[in-house]
Amino acid sequence: MASHNNTLHDNFDVDYVITYRFADTTKAEASRNFQDLVQALARVGLAIEVRNGENCSLLIFVKVTSDDRLNNAVYRSRVKDWLYGIRPAQPDRETQNSLTNQPLTEAERYRIVHHLITGPKEEGNAGIIPIHGQWKNVESIFPLHDHTFNKEWIKKWATVTFLKVEDLDEIRNRFGEKVAYYFAFTQSYFAFLIFPAAFGFSSWVLLGHFSSIYAIVNCLWSVVFIEYWKRQEVDLGVRWGVKGVSAIQEKRREFQHEKEIKDPITGETLQVFPATKRLYRQLLQLPFAVLASLALGVIIATCFGIEIFLSEVYSGPFKSILVFLPTLMLTALVPTITTILTEIATRLNDYENWETTDAYDSAMTQKIFILNFITSYLPVFLTAFVYVPFGSLIVPYLDIFQLTARPFAGNEKQLATPKSGFTINPARLRKQVIYFAVTAQIVNFAMETIVPYLKRQGFHKYQELKTERAAKKGGAAPNAAANDLPEEAQFLARVRSEAELDVYDVSTDLREMVVQFGYLTLFSVVWPVTAVSFLINNWVELRSDAVKICVEMQRPTPHRADSIGPWLDSLGFLTWIGSISTAALVYLFSNDGLGPDGTPADIKGWALLLTIFFSEHIYLVVCLAVRLALSKMDSPGMQKAHAERFMVRKRYFEESFGEDAMELPPPMDREKITRSSLEEEARQGSVRSSTPQDHFWLRQRSWEESAKIGAGLIEKMAPAETKKHQ
Amino acid sequence: MASHNNTLHDNFDVDYVITYRFADTTKAEASRNFQDLVQALARVGLAIEVRNGENCSLLIFVKVTSDDRLNNAVYRSRVKDWLYGIRPAQPDRETQNSLTNQPLTEAERYRIVHHLITGPKEEGNAGIIPIHGQWKNVESIFPLHDHTFNKEWIKKWATVTFLKVEDLDEIRNRFGEKVAYYFAFTQSYFAFLIFPAAFGFSSWVLLGHFSSIYAIVNCLWSVVFIEYWKRQEVDLGVRWGVKGVSAIQEKRREFQHEKEIKDPITGETLQVFPATKRLYRQLLQLPFAVLASLALGVIIATCFGIEIFLSEVYSGPFKSILVFLPTLMLTALVPTITTILTEIATRLNDYENWETTDAYDSAMTQKIFILNFITSYLPVFLTAFVYVPFGSLIVPYLDIFQLTARPFAGNEKQLATPKSGFTINPARLRKQVIYFAVTAQIVNFAMETIVPYLKRQGFHKYQELKTERAAKKGGAAPNAAANDLPEEAQFLARVRSEAELDVYDVSTDLREMVVQFGYLTLFSVVWPVTAVSFLINNWVELRSDAVKICVEMQRPTPHRADSIGPWLDSLGFLTWIGSISTAALVYLFSNDGLGPDGTPADIKGWALLLTIFFSEHIYLVVCLAVRLALSKMDSPGMQKAHAERFMVRKRYFEESFGEDAMELPPPMDREKITRSSLEEEARQGSVRSSTPQDHFWLRQRSWEESAKIGAGLIEKMAPAETKKHQ
User: Fold this and answer.
1) SS3 category, B201
2) Which residues of A263-359 form beta strands (DSSP E)?
3) Inter-chain touch A722–B27, beta carbons under 8 Å
4) Closest Cα of chain B to A608: distance in Å?
5) Are B13 and A697 in contact (CB < 8 Å)?
6) pLDDT band per the 50, 70, 90 thresholds, residue B591
7) Burial class (CB in 10 A: 0-12, 13-18, 19+), B269
């Protein structure tokens, strides 16, 4: 516990801070409710201190009082893990021994204490779920940042390019496996990117765009990367002792059962919601997918049409300004529609009434992925597979967008679409891919790090100004920090600011990486340098994410996980689609490496489809082969898992059967019996029971007799040749 | 044990019979070897009786002498199962209790005794592997048929159409899970066939051939069937307590390790063969696949060409006889080449040096499947996708086959291929499918049941004749039955005849079913009545297989399994290919339901490929959807598995933490402390240790104090609105 004291020194040993907000409640109710809360916390053995929070809130500091209590909870959790097959070996029956053998990491401690606070009452926890039912005033429950560690961590990362597995261990020990898996994934992805970055750059220089060699190598690389990562996941799971942890499912509080049934075998009362009913509800996803595709598709296609009209048809004044109109429309409309659709998706997901948090998250991830797929890739798909091949056919119909430029046009001619002779802009596709590969990444980075920083600074300034003005007027709410004790003041100020930070959601960051991976598999053949841009971006991304966790977000509560979850399927799906889209792009535009030339007249449908057919099936076969090959290879994780299981079995067998269990019994105990006793026995036997079986089995009295008789038979029956041979 | 005695009455309680053949060994060596064998058997606690066998062989009868010995072996096996996660609950520590709770099935007994005889010496077994190393004289080890049961079983099956799960349990209890899984699969398949049989017949009557509706329904049906069976496998695995049994791997005796390494963690000595080296060796499969495809493909294509030449070009004499020439060639050549290729495949498989029996079998199954795929489906593929669409192009070049008919031709004109105006025979494809769906099934059935019967009868007659003639001459080898005791004579005669029977190999029967399933998914759209034929065939097949096991084969040694193994993948593969081939067939030949008309001129390549593309991807999506939907459904097996796991956890938690582990600790143990003692403590505390933490945590002494202070803060900080509200 000594190290624990040292590292947490700044935090006064606080395990968790609970913010209690009473702005919308009457005083009496708030007090009563607060008393219940404090009592519930005390009941599970937590020490409590209350302080003032900002804006009608209280900060409740809790820590575990007794080591026994904590150790017992840890032991219970470990036994549970063992029973669910996550730990190969049963934890030592003595709690203290068990903890000495395998000391508690910080993340484990935080996880256990969090479970103590939020876990179900029936299992002896406090059952406090923020903003839910009885605890609607509890706003959040969060641990405090360890600023000493954070500073060192960020400093280290600034100087090191490749994270070692020990660095990942460090993240896991601090922030839990879920966050660690994100960093491990991004790190693996970053390291793997070096190859396509180098190869892509060379092929860009040597082979130009739309090189089929680059396409094949890139697709192969994606397959290998995904299969490698799957393996890496398992390895890390073994290393961190979380393999199979998804088997422990926590019930969602929001789950509404339809009926309660008593299990006939176990007598357990089960709250069930019929799977068929959920399946019917899931069918609503189909109209939702259609709706989302239509809504986003129409917007994107319209803006796309307007853009082409303005940039390539329109020739009137203000062209250079008007050209930005569709981009503006997109920037305004797509996030709005996405927000609405996400809201609908959440409602749908709620309505599907999932029983466990994992299932809920997984279903939600799928829906979010569909939305992201449309918003991220549809524009490029439109350019590649609609604009370029069919541009000359479509452009004449674009005069419906005259509306957008009519007020500015000098004469009708400037708005007229060319009836013939229109040539598409061959650079458009490349420009678009470069936009998504470079510009969008930078914009994203800015949105993610700089904007929140400015926002926070502004907010602080605003608060200060407000307080000052209120102080001048004298009638304002009392300052939260007014009564702070001097030795606590600095600490409390820090806690108050941490309480206002956002909660870190690792799936947002993962989504970003997956979407980025999609550009690489789907479109990088257009501009092979894509991977270089991503490589640079991800170096920054990894570090900025670390900073984000340390500075801009509340310290995340550690959660366990044994994979990056359903995003893995998304990665596989993107590679698959990539094998189709890349083949199509190469066939359509591979014009001696010059890129699309706007003369797609000599494209043959059957040849395009045949290219796709082969590409896709080769992808599938390669995928299978790589998976098979990797599954045959040994890895440190698998070796460790095997060794652990072996040890458990060995120990158990030694305990149960003793070291000598394998010893053979002494042969021939019948030998000691004398001839006469045998005869006596046989006589008695034939009197006592004279079943045919007994007769049969008593003919030969011992194995020696059998051997002798056998030898006799061999002598008699052996073929004549053998006789001669002797 | 009473029932055991009754049912085995006829078999004199014999557990296993070992045949020892000494025809090729000198007498001295045979005797010495025999003594070793008998000693090894006695050493593991088996009672032994030796009798004469046919043709220079001995029959060694063994049974387990002591119940303790057997029970101990059973207990060890069950503990091992538990440690490998196959049994959810640890077997009762008392062996006898464990056996009373879960009595021994006949199959389990036979399996345990078999392991006692053949299992590795290091684990306390006899280590006798037939025809291997030291035991090259041991020809076979087999249990004896239970004729009473067999008779009843076959009688029951003759009257019952649908097997209930209890019937499958019966098979499992007698012949072990591996055989039971085959019957369970065939039974499920049979039951599922009723739908396509009914639907196929109606669609044949109403929609004609090549109906796209039939194609879609048939493909959907295949997907549902396979997914249903996967689930059924799991359910049966739970029911029979074998789920996950494939985790227990038995090392192959033939495995040759490259080096021995000592595991650094466990200290276990591991015999390893590098996985990469095996991968390289596996690459040899590629040239093998090419060779096999070429060899079989050339033969099949040649015969096919000759057949078309003779039946549709040649017009000379003997045409009606010559037409059978290619069929004869096929019948003679294909099995020969297949045998050679199977031999090569076995060598390859041996060379791959698999470590476990399961891995070896699985790799072999894959190779066999490839061979079967070519021989079974290539002829139809050739007709459908080469002859019909390109017939008119190819036929003019068929004069290379003039050779086959030249000796009989009256004049050159009879041999000349028409330079134009040739029309293909549109009925050829249908005829071929009907041949494979009906004729081949009947031929197969005859080959499988009637031919071996006749062979056996002939062999017996031949033996009798030989013995008679030898007896007349007087100089022959002595008759094996000459010295039999009268009360044993009948029994020994039966055992001698059983010793001569073949060993039952369930994978041959499974392969037959898989190949049949392939015709259904790949080609049944040509002739939708296919399923009706298969339905009838499989009713007979199930029964004839039962008869085969009981009469024509040695009783199989029970083996455990938790699935039908790699054949499952083959089924999935066939459905996948089916989605492609069916779509292509429908597009090519769907001529208003009239079938191919030999005018494929208006076939468009892109349309064909687009049809295939959509069909395949719809198949993949449907496959995923069905899998997802089924995985959400509850099933008896999964309920049982869940209940079992729940009981284990509950029991363990109750044992470890007691029934009251969930009880809450008494709140507020600080309350009893008086005010003065608190102050004293605080003073002393500040003397003893005055860290900031202590100060922080001692401000509020109990949860009541925290609650009170919190209430005060709420009173002070609450917003004005709330005050008005009161």
Assistant:
1) helix
2) 269-272
3) yes
4) 8
5) yes
6) low
7) exposed
Interface test with chain B among A639, A714, A716, A723, by most B beta carbons within 10 Å: A714
In a mutagenesis test of the A interface, which of B609, B644, B649 is the best target, namely the one with the most A β-carbons within 10 Å?
B609
Pick the residue with more confidence: A707 or A399? A707
What ipTM was assigned to the predicted interfaces of this complex?
0.82
Angle at B250 between CA B249 and CA B254, to 5 degrees: 130
Residue among A30, A279, A717 minimizing CB distance to B52? A717
Residue A613 to chain B, least CA–CA distance (Å)? 7
Distance from CA of A50 to the nearest CA of B (A): 6
B275/A35 Cβ within 8 A:
no
Q: Check residue B677 and give its pLDDT.
A: 54
pLDDT for the residue A144: 92
Q: b/e for A471-488, b at 16 or more Cβ within 10 A?
A: eeeeeeeeebeeebeeeb
Which pLDDT score, from 0 to 100, does residue A6 have? 40
Write the DSSP symbol of residue B134: G
Residues of A within 8 A of B488 (CB-CB) are 696
Q: Are strands A138-142 and B16-21 parallel, antiparallel or unpaired?
A: unpaired
Q: What is the pLDDT of residues B667-720, one digit of tens each?
A: 444 444 455 555 555 555 555 556 777 778 888 777 788 888 888 888 877 765
Q: How far apart are CA A473 and CA A642, in angstroms?
A: 72
In chain B, the residue whose alpha carbon lies closest to the alpha carbon of A25 is B722
pLDDT in tens, A504-544: 989 889 999 999 999 999 999 989 999 999 999 999 989 98
Lowest mean pLDDT among A44-53, B6-15, B536-545: B6-15
User: How many of the other CB atoms lie within 10 Å of CB of B55?
Assistant: 13
Tell me the per-residue pLDDT of B347-379, one tens digit each, with 9 for 90 and over.
999 999 888 888 898 899 989 998 999 888 988
Q: Which residue of A has its CA nearest to B80?
A: A649
How far, in Å, CA of A689 to CA of A189, rounded? 78
DSSP per position, B387-403: IHHHHHHHGGGGGGGHH
Chain B nearest C-alpha distance from A323 (Å): 38
> Domain spans of chain A?
2-144, 172-478+504-642, 674-725
Contact A275 B634 (CB under 8 A): yes
CA nearest neighbour of A248 among A585, A578, A561, A630: A561
Q: Helices marked H in B176-284 — which ranges? A: 177-206, 212-239, 275-282
Looking at residue B483, its amino acid is N
